[in-house]
Amino acid sequence: MYQPVMMTPIDFRSDNTAGAAPEILEALKKANTETAPAYGQDRWTLELQERVRELFANPHAQAFPVMSGTAANSLVLSAMCPPWGSILCHESAHILQSECNATSMFGGGASIRGLAGNGHLLTPESLQDAFKNTGWGDNHQSQPSVLSLTLPSDFGTSYTLDQISALSETAKQRGLSIHVDGARIANVLAGQKISPAQLVRSSGVSALSLGGVKNGTLSADAIVSFDPRISEQLHYRLKRAGHIASKMRFQSAQLIAYLQDDLWLRQAARANAAMARLSAGFMDMGWNVLHPCSVNMAFVQMDESFAQRLWDLGLLFHRHPTGWARFVTSFATRSEDVDEALRRASSLR
Ligand SMILES: Cc1ncc(COP(=O)(O)O)c(C=O)c1O
C-alpha cells in the first residue's frame, strides 16, 4: 500500500519562493556605508540611468525602480493609456487575470481587453479581429490604445523576435503603443539569446516592466520607459502611488548589480536549464506536459490524487483546481534538486 514519507521539500512552487542572489546582497551592503540624497537623487540611481541607456541602446531609456511587477505594470500602463482607452493583451495575461484591476484603478478607468490567441500568445490575426470589432471614434466604446505583450506568457510560452515585430507592426498601424510585461524577461532573452537592444528595436516598445524579484533581487523591479512623455508622467504617478522610495539607492544598487556582467541573464539561464532537465524528465516518465517549456515553467496535467502523492514525497508546486500543476525553477534551483525530484517522482510509477 502507498505510504507517504516525510522528506526534505524541493520547492517548485514559484521563482518567488527563492531568496536573493549573493551579488545582490553584496551590492546592498556596499550601498549601506554612507549617507546619500533621498528620493532617487543618489549616485546609484543616476548610474542606473546610464546603465539602462547603454544596455537598451536607447538614449531615452529611463529606469524607475518599484517594489513589484504589479506596481510596474499598472503604473506604466496608466501613463500609457487614456482613461477612455483600452489595453489589449492575451486573455491569460497577468495584468488581466492576477493584478486585481490595479491598472484600471491607476488608469482612471482604463480597461483591459483580453484576446484569444495561440498557445497563450497573441497573433496579428487576433489583433486584427479586435480592431474589426472596435467602434473607432465611437464614444460608447473604449478605444484600443496600448498593446501589452507578456514575455514570457503566464504559461511559459514565448514570442520570437519575428512574432513580436509582426504584432508591433499591426498594433502601430492602428496607433497603439507597445508595453512589455517582462516580469521574467531575462528568461526569454537568455533562452533565445536575444540582446536587450534587439528586443527594444524589434518591438518598438515604449515601456518595459523589467522583472528582478523573481530572478534574484529583493523587492526591486523597475519600469524602463523609452518615451520621455511616459517618463514625465511616471515622475508624478509613482510618487502618488507611494513608489518613490526615500532610500531608492538600495533598489538602484541592486538593479545595477543585477544588470552588471549579465548577472540577470546568467541567473535566468540557470533557471531555464534546470527546467529543461526537469521537464525532459517529466516527459520521459510519460507525464502530460501541456506547453513547450521555453523558459523556467512547466505545466503538467495531473489529477488531485497524483498531485497529493507527489506532495507527500516533498515535491512542492502550484496545484490548480482544474487539474493541472505548475512547476517553476529559479536561479537557485540546484541540479541535485532536479535529480532528486525526478528520482522521487519516478518512484510513483
Ligand atoms: C507575468 C507576470 N507579470 C507580473 C507579475 C506581478 O509581479 P508581482 O507579484 O511582483 O506583483 C507576475 C507575478 O507573478 C507575473 O508572473
Tell me about this structure:
- α8 packs across α12.
- Helices cover 43% and strands 17% of the residues.
- It has helices at 22-30, 43-55, 69-80, 94-97, 102-106, 124-132, 161-173, 185-192, 196-203, 228-240, 248-259, 263-284, 304-312, 335-346, and strands at 10-11, 62-66, 85-90, 111-115, 143-150, 177-182, 207-210, 221-225, 288-289, 297-301, 315-316, 318-320, 324-328.
- It contains 14 helices and 13 strands.
- With 349 residues, it is an alpha/beta fold.
- Pyridoxal-5'-phosphate (PLP) binds next to α3.
- The site of pyridoxal-5'-phosphate (PLP) has 10 residues, from α3.
The Rg value, from CA coordinates, equals: 21 Å
Structural class: alpha/beta
Q: Give the rounded overall mean pLDDT.
A: 96
How many helices in DSSP terms?
14
Question: How does the major sheet shape up?
Answer: 7 strands, mixed
Bound molecules: pyridoxal-5'-phosphate
Give me the count of strands. Answer: 13
Order of the strands making up the biggest sheet: 2-8-7-6-5-3-4
State the low-pLDDT regions, or none. none
Q: How do the helices and strands follow one another from N- to C-terminus?
A: EHHEHEHHEHEHEHHEEHHHEEHEEEH
Fraction of residues in H or I helices: 40-55%
Shape type:
globular
In angstroms, what separates the terminal alpha carbons? 14 Å
Instruction: Tell me the β content.
Output: 15-25%
